[in-house]
Amino acid sequence: MEQQSKIFGIRAVIEAINSGKTISKVFLQKSLSGQLFSELNTLLAKHNISKSYVPVEKLNRLSKNNNHQGVVAEISPIEFADLDTLISESLTSDTSPLFLILDGISDVRNFGAIIRTAECTGVNAIVISKQGSAPVNSETIKTSAGAAFKVPICKVDHIKDALFQFGAADIQTVAATEKTENSVYNINFTKPIAIIMGSEDRGVNPSVLKMVNEKAKLPLLGEIESLNVSVACGAFLYEATRQRL
User: Fold this and answer.
1) Residue 66: φ, ψ to 5°
2) Phi/psi of residue 163, each to 5°?
3) Side by side, which strands form the sheet with 51-54?
4) Domains in the chain, ordered, with CATH?
5) What residue spans of the chain are helical by DSSP H?
6) pLDDT tens track, the chain, 245 positions
7) Angle 146-3-46 (CA atoms, 0-180°, nearest 5)?
8) DSSP string covering 219-245, please?
9) Dihedral through CA 125, CA 131, CA 134, CA 136, nearest 10?
10) Which of 129, 113, 132 is nearest to 121 (CA)?
11) How, if at all, do strands 172-176 and 71-75 pair?
């Protein structure tokens, strides 16, 4: 990540949040304490900003040994979009809405690759949760080949919030999961739809699976039990594209 996309120091990060900067994530030194730290923690909770406690060695690397005071924040290179606005706009479009929900994708390379495929397949917007998602940083931008500047990305407090919003707009939801016998090739992707891809290690959250309209899986003919999530996402999106052409 580029040097200018980070902020170092407790007071500097507090001021950045208060001034409305879009913070992707804050890295905190383990065992940090004090009044300013308490003030920062309160702000992080208020704005639902993702944080992670890390050893001082990582902070030294992130800050290139600048005086970080135990805190390094990453500034997002993009502005996040409003999901309600994008849903409303998509419903007035000539093409059927196609959204992508990422439930806990944490690897920036997977995230970037997914954004790139989403742009190539005409996805209206990508939805991620504020906590537990990979940040939109310079590595994400690079892996996406710049697509992160072209596809709107929305942050929600919880994935369930997005499901309620899509449901209210009559946009169907389909989860990619191995916990079904239904094939992706049985899904009608020509209707307004939101595809849900799960995290690299656990897939789509069970509580989310209970709320979706449909579940679907990709056929696996080899001995390995799963695909890389960005590859699986590409297969789903291009099946949607095939049906829509």
Assistant:
1) -70, 170
2) -60, -40
3) 6-8, 71-75, 23-29, 51-54
4) 3-75 (3.30.1330.30), 83-244 (3.40.1280.10)
5) 10-18, 35-46, 56-63, 83-91, 108-120, 138-143, 159-168, 206-209, 229-244
6) 344 478 889 999 999 999 888 888 899 998 888 899 999 999 998 888 888 899 999 999 888 877 898 999 988 888 899 999 999 999 999 999 999 999 999 999 999 999 999 999 999 999 999 888 888 888 899 999 999 999 999 999 899 999 999 999 999 999 999 999 999 999 999 999 999 999 988 999 999 999 999 999 999 999 888 899 999 999 999 999 999 99
7) 85
8) ---SS-----HHHHHHHHHHHHHHHH-
9) 60
10) 113
11) unpaired
Extract the tokens encoding 175.
Answer: 């989860």
Strands 51-54 and 125-129, by their bridges, are unpaired
Q: Got the DSSP string for 83-94?
A: HHHHHHHHHTSS
Structure tokens at 138: 């310079």
Contact between residue 95 and residue 122 where contact means Cβ atoms under 8 Å apart:
yes
Global pTM value: 0.84
Distance of CA 198 to the CA centre of its chain: 10
